[in-house]
Amino acid sequence: QVQLVESGGGLVQAGGSLRLSCAASGRAVSSYNMGWFRQAPGKEREFVAAIDWSGRSTKYEGSVKGRFTISRDTAKNTVYLQMNSLKPGDTAVYYCAADTVLYAWPRTETYGYDYWGQGTQVTVSS
């Protein structure tokens, strides 16, 4: 079992950048396909980005492609989400999640992810 803790959220102006971190403990991030999701007030949780267990494949939701980058550091057992050119529409609570079913790659639905962090708030002002 893995425990996930997100950090790095905050308040930023439109056009700015943030880097979110997801620190894992209990098991290596290389044991999972890892994903980032977000949930805005009144909306369902939605897929943002994912990286596969090998670290060689990534997938992005269309509106963040070219602006966000998912990566990982296996030595630190941490997954990152670098967010550039932020927009007010990116405002949400961001969650990282771990998917144990490696062959299901790429999975963009929330129900397939087995472990979740507590989330970190990202607010983008206009």
What attributes characterize this protein structure?
126 residues; mainly beta; 7-stranded mixed sheet
Helix percentage range: under 10%
What structural category do the secondary elements indicate? mainly beta
Query: How would you state the average pLDDT, rounded?
Result: 97
* Dominant shape: globular
Low-confidence segments, given as residue ranges, are: none
Sheet-strand content, in percent, reads over 45%
Whole-number radius of gyration? Answer: 13 Å
Helix-strand sequence: EEEEEEEEEEE
Sheet with most strands: 7 strands, mixed
Number of helices: 0
The total count of strands amounts to: 11
For the terminal residues, how far apart are their CA atoms?
A: 40 Å
Architecture overview:
With 126 residues, this protein is mostly beta strands. It is built from no helices and eleven strands. It starts with a strand and ends with a strand.
SSE topology sketch:
Layout: E1 3-7, E2 10-13, E3 18-25, E4 33-39, E5 46-51, E6 58-60, E7 68-73, E8 78-83, E9 92-99, E10 115-116, E11 120-125
Parallel strand pairs: 2-11
Antiparallel strand pairs: 1-3, 3-8, 4-5, 4-9, 5-6, 7-8, 9-10, 9-11
Care to give the gist of this entry?
The protein is built from no helices and 11 strands. It is an all-beta fold and 126 residues long.
